[in-house]
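Batch manifest line 276
LIGAND: NAP
JOB: complex structure
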Amino acid sequence: MRVLIVGGSGHLGRQLVRCATKDGHQVAATYRTRPHQISGAEKHQLDLRDQQQTERLIERIDPQLIINTAFQQGDWISTAVAPANLAQALRDRSVRLVHVSSDAVFSGDAIHYRETATPDPVTPYGAAKAAAETATTAVHPSAVIARTSLIIGHGSSSHERFVHALATGQQPGTLFSDDIRCPVHVDDLAAALLELGVGNRSGIHHLAGADAISRYELGLLIAQRDDPATSGLRHGSRTDANIRGPVDVRLDSTETQQGLRTQLRGAREFLKPAPG
Ligand SMILES: NC(=O)c1ccc[n+]([C@@H]2O[C@H](COP(=O)([O-])OP(=O)(O)OC[C@H]3O[C@@H](n4cnc5c(N)ncnc54)[C@H](OP(=O)(O)O)[C@@H]3O)[C@@H](O)[C@H]2O)c1
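JOB STATUS: finished
ARTIFACT:
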């Protein structure tokens, strides 16, 4: 299959490129500012905010499957509007589209969220992701919307780098013990996104890890896996700190998982220290 990974220079995008290449697909990937992050695939510069550039690239590559991971924190146009530009560029084409979304579309008021839950974002980022879901589905109704949670990898995700900086005292900060998510491993997430992409499903799917854990417990597990020094990790309460945004958001992926071969492991399993 001709597969295009939009945002191929990002943390998730890079793993998608590796995974799709390994599965034997013909892979192209886009970057906006970091071409050096892509290896093993044809690379193309793309700013999704530019409708004409987006349309020209789709015309040139003629992909059969697109997985869109692109977003930019703090940029409404890149996160909310640009995905609609992409969907618009696919009109009159028979292309599978998987759009990556986030648990940030939920406020946390209900704590547990299944695929049927109605988004009620409380941050600009969450609102942008919710808007992107709506626009993508409206323009390309057969799209898969894949919501996920904190993406953890082999040490290079922003979450892991933050924990390393705290644990080694390079950065001050607190990990909240009441800030709960369902982290997912980037390998599992990439495999599941490709599985959904090559299949024939559409609509909303949840791809989060099986364990609901706090940022503090996640930090301890990351520090224990990468370095035994955990003394620099301080815990606190997000509720007491009165920080705006969702506190406890647990994506329930049970229904999506039932139809997948890929197992979405929980953080306690994938961050277990190697024996010996
Ligand atoms: N990270 C998490 O824990 C997490 C949790 C839930 C959901 N998500 C969602 O998962 C997806 C991937 O996250 P990630 O952590 O892999 O992100 P990332 O590492 O920050 O990568 C973002 C990608 O988007 C590209 N990009 C930014 N603005 C763009 C634009 N205007 N046009 C085209 N490309 C643009 C970047 O290109 P350059 O780097 O080349 O500039 C990069 O390839 C996002 O949709 C995010 O909302 C992430």
